[in-house]
Write a structure and sequence with these properties.
- With 469 residues, the protein is α/β, with parallel strands linked by helices.
- Among the domains are: 13-178, 3-Layer(aba) Sandwich (Rossmann fold); 310-469, Histidine kinase-like ATPase, C-terminal domain (Heat Shock Protein 90), CATH 3.30.565.
- Helix content is 52%, strand content 16%.
- It has a 5-stranded parallel sheet, with helices on both faces. It has a 5-stranded mixed sheet with strand order 7-9-10-12-11, covered by helices on one side.
- α4 (110-120) links the parallel β3 and β4 (125-130).
- The longest helix is centred in the middle third of the chain and has 99 residues, at 156-254.
- It binds adenosine-5'-triphosphate and magnesium ion.
- Adenosine-5'-triphosphate is lined by residues 363, 367-368, 371, 396, 398-401, 409, 414-417, 422-428, 451.
């Protein structure tokens, strides 16, 4: 028989002491509390998951169990268990949205079952139905996590409302926790995107700065190239001409002059400091020659470093690029306190944005020199090729990097240098450039011992693809 909610099985609290109903929970009197509206509101419930309308009813009294199951099965999918342990076994096999349980049962009590459910099946709501109507008990059950506490014999309408509310509350809680999780995920993603954006912004800024600096350097180099070239070659010519003029002068010197002319020449020689001039001419000329040679080298290195007169993507020998960069840093590497060891291997040419890679070597070499600072130390550059990958290491015997800073050094604007000395962009730019080449940049450091940066670059990088990534 399916009970009619209008003829309730019992009513809440008002009939809790009806002695004649203990056991079956049936009421003689008409109900004081019924609910049909609550029942009808559940006719079209929305259950996103199959177990959202699954209810497990637990009671050691078969009559009550069957009655509740039959009644609730009109709307929900119900299963029954005769005790708490059986209920736990069923819960372990499949999920339930709600457990409706008696309190007093042989073995585990309903409260112990409630505790286990709140601990292990957080997504399952629990309604306690008990013959005992002590306020403290009700409060304890609610505190442990029960959605509701009904007193036997209870009204079927009240049961309906209670079940409906428990399921609604469960859905609300679940949606709230999903929204919270979703918001947290979005927040994390936003924070990640913000960091990425800042990194890209910094890179674009620096790249623009470097591009204009590079253009400037290449422009200056270009303008200096011709005058430096003719100073250099004219000095060479001049050296030969002066040798010839000196020969002529020395021959004149040996000629016997009339005393008046001889006196006049002697006076002129004295006035112009002839002996010293002739003696110094050679060394002045060779100083000029060395100076002109240096200007020519700097100009050539600037052109090589900026590589603006070459196509953006080109195959180059990394050893050459590193060497051109080193030659632009005499302020750091010619002063004598830093020993520079170049251990260049036989490496194949690499497909790359040459000017950008030179920027990487520049950043690493300047950082290494800064790390050694005023102390004595060594910077070692090695290049090797493994399996179509060129591996460049730049290691120094400088101050090293504390482990808590290691994860930050590639972040834009991270610097330990005083304001005005470092922008904190060198490594983040270098990281971006190496990534653009489909390569990797790694660091190992021991505070007090030194640091090694290892850059691995594929020999045949597909730069169009890498750049669009
Ligand atoms: N070889 C190294 N030894 C020790 N610390 C280093 C080394 N290279 C980098 N660092 C640390 O990493 C930080 C970030 O380096 P990065 O090159 O990005 O910026 P920076 O050198 O401080 O400034 P910028 O390069 O913009 O002038 C440095 O401030 C320094 O603390
Ligand atoms: Mg730097």
């Amino acid at each position: 028989m399916i009970p009619n909610p209008a003829q309730p099985f019992g009513s809440k609290i008002l009939h809790m002491n009806s002695a004649q109903n203990e056991g079956t929970g049936l009421l003689e009197n008409p109900p004081l509390l019924t609910s049909t509206t609550a029942h009808s509101s559940l006719l079209n419930p929305e259950y996103p998951e199959s177990h959202d309308h699954r209810i497990l009813i637990v009671d050691d009294e078969a009559a009550v169990l069957n009655l509740f199951a039959t009644y609730l099965s009109e709307t929900y999918s119900c299963e029954t268990a005769a005790n708490a342990q059986e209920a736990l076994d069923i819960l372990a096999r499949e999920p339930f949205a709600l457990v409706v349980t008696d309190i007093q049962m042989p073995g585990l009590s309903g409260i112990e079952l409630l505790r286990k459910i709140t601990e292990y099946y957080k997504d399952t709501a629990v309604i306690i139905i008990s013959g005992i109507a002590r306020t403290q008990r009700v409060m304890d059950a609610i505190r442990v996590g029960a959605s509701d506490y009904l007193i036997k014999p209870c009204d079927l309408g009240a049961l309906t409302i209670s079940v409906e509310r428990a399921l609604e509350r469960r859905m609300l809680l679940r949606n709230a926790s999903r929204y919270k999780q979703d918001l947290e995920n979005r927040n994390t993603e936003l924070a990640r995107q913000k960091r990425e954006l800042e990194r890209l912004q910094a890179q674009v800024l620096q790249a623009e700065k470097m591009a204009s600096l590079g253009q400037l350097a290449a422009g200056v180099a270009h303008e200096l190239n011709n005058p430096a070239g003719f100073i250099y070659s004219n000095i060479d010519l001049m050296k030969g001409y002066i040798e010839r003029l000196k020969r002529c002068l020395f021959d004149y010197d040996r000629l016997a002059l009339v005393p008046e002319a001889a006196e006049q020449i002697r006076a002129i020689k004295k006035e112009i400091d002839y002996d010293n001039i002739v003696g110094e001419l050679d060394s002045i000329l060779s100083d000029c020659y060395v100076g002109a040679e240096r200007i020519r080298d700097v100009v050539q290195n600037l052109r090589l470093f900026s590589r603006l007169d070459e196509p953006a993507v080109t195959r180059i020998d990394l050893n050459e690029g590193i060497e051109a960069t080193v030659r632009l840093l005499p302020g750091y590497y010619k002063s004598g306190s830093i020993r520079l060891v170049r251990d260049y291997g036989d490496v194949p040419q690499v497909n790359c944005y040459a000017a950008q890679l030179n920027q990487v070597w520049m950043n690493l070499l300047v950082n290494a020199a800064h790390a050694i600072d005023s102390a004595e130390g060594e910077v070692r550059i090695t290049t090797r090729c493994n399996d179509r990958t060129v591996v460049v290491t730049v290691s120094d015997t400088g101050a090293g990097i504390p482990s808590e800073q290691l994860s930050k050094i590639f972040d834009p604007f991270f610097t330990t240098k005083p304001v005005g000395e470092g922008t904190g962009l060198g490594l983040s730019i270098s990281h971006g450039i190496v990534e653009r080449h489909g390569g990797r940049i790694e660091v190992e450091s021991t505070p007090g011992r030194g640091t090694t940066f290892t850059i691995s670059l594929p020999v045949d990088a597909d730069l169009e693809v890498a750049a669009s990534n």
